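Hi, here's the filled form for the chain we discussed.

Project: internal
Contact: R.S.
Residues: 413
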Amino acid sequence: MKCTIRHSLSILPCLLLLQLHSPSPAQSRQWNCGTCKGLTDKFSEGLSETEKGNFGGGNTDWEETYLKDYKRSEVRLLEIMERLCTKDDHACHALLEEHEELLEDWWKEEQDANPELYKWLCIDQIQVCCPKDTFGPKCSDCPIGRDKVCSGHGKCKGEGTRDGEGTCSCDKGYQGVLCEECTQDHYEEYNNETHLSCKECNESCDECHGPGANECKKCKENYVLHEGSCTECDSLCNGCDGVGPEHCLKCKPEAEMVEGVCIECATACNGCTGPGPENCKECKKGFERNTDSTCEDVDECKTTCRLQHEVCTNTVGSYDCNCEEGYEKNSRDDCVMKLKDVKAEADKVRNSRKYKQQPKPPKTLLPGTQEAIRVVSIFFIVVMAILVALVEPILGAFVAVVGGVVWYFVMKT
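And the returned structure, exactly as it came back:
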């Protein structure tokens, strides 16, 4: 909407419109009363911790010498403020950054006159919270009944904050603007000018005037008044006008109305005309009619679970297809050996006798090789002996003897 003085009889409607659409301080800020309350609580904890750890401990002499008064020192204030907000508490950091000077003012000048930091900071200075039992921008009084907020049986919406409606949110069993009435499923245990107590009705009652099943004003669904008390309908009934399956208004899904009486159908039946699997209107999935027209269980294991290492277990109306012991399903739904069993099996094979390393057999010469060696060795010895004998007969004889010994060992191998 575009506002101009030219198109308006008065500028007042424009100002009102801007006021309606502009966010309030509570809406625009990142923090709220809970943030401020949490910060002041942490500040109080810091006061206790630093008083024990610094002022009354090992640093006492140093503080008295250099700061004279550690109790009100800036060092102590800094120690406390460093612990106020956790790393990820952005609302707390935003509040502390915006109003750090107020904390310093309270620390230096206001502690004695206003010892309660929460009241001074959150209620009086920042004005984001309200005193107990008040709510809203002007800290209006919460509704009072029987001299208590919400008659002592509820909570005032927005209590203690500058937000909320200030209406009563009643506890279980209580209702009304001031929570001074009992709900339908509770009764008045006592009621006087200052106190009201509501107690829950018997589980069979929808309304009551006392704790017993015979004190119901109205029975709950699927209960019926019988001999002065609310009694549960038969287990096969969905609603009834009396006790027993013959008084059902409707039957539950697992039952069928036959001649005015709810009869429980057999497990194999999808609808029935009487008890037993022989009276089924239709057979349920997993069952089929036999030659006697009786619905009987189908043994699915005869035609399914045929993959390797699968085990089938037939159940009533169904079956279970699992893997053999030591196997499990993979992503393709195949039964494969479990990883730990695969390793165990590999170790078993590795350590078995069948796969142990056998000693290497001795090397053997090819056929005819040994005979060739013998011939060559004899020829070599004879030639050497003749050559040496031509030069030195005695040395030739020695070579002949040595050659004979060598030839002997060659012949032996």
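Let me know if anything looks off before we file it.
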